[in-house]
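so my prof wants the structure for this chain in the tokens format not the other one, which i didnt know existed until like an hour ago. anyway here's the sequence
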Amino acid sequence: MAKSDLHTFVIPLSQALAAEMGFEMIDAELVKEGPGRYLRVYLDKEGGITLDDCEKFHRAVQPKLEPVDYDFLEISSPGVDRPLKTDRDFARALNTQVEVTLYKPVNGVKSLVGTLAGYDAETFLLLTASGERAMNRRDAAVIRPVIVFEEDEGGGEK
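here's what i got, hopefully its the right format
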């Protein structure tokens, strides 16, 4: 199966199965790394995905993926710092800090941090220390939430 079949076979199959199981399929990728081809499916659910959830989904989806040419199947959480790709991702990150890495520098800047103040299908609005910046989504290589670790009273991380 060709890599293009990821969008015509793997993703629709994974989305349907994830929905049946009460999960949300966030993303899937088929990549060559080292000696093998990795098929990765990223899941989430309200309250976060667990290792048991990943195992349950793996057991359910693996037999259905026989037509796909891959060596390793990985099912995992996309992580708290997962990139914003869909409108749903942008909605979740609205009014929070994000880090934006651009494909090429704009006014000498290739990376920005600011509060995601708005978005539509083509643009997003970032409030930075130097003011508002309206940007095209296609110009951003990666947009991901800024993760802030708080310290507890004992001086350690929470």
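also thought this was worth mentioning. The chain has a mean pLDDT of 90.
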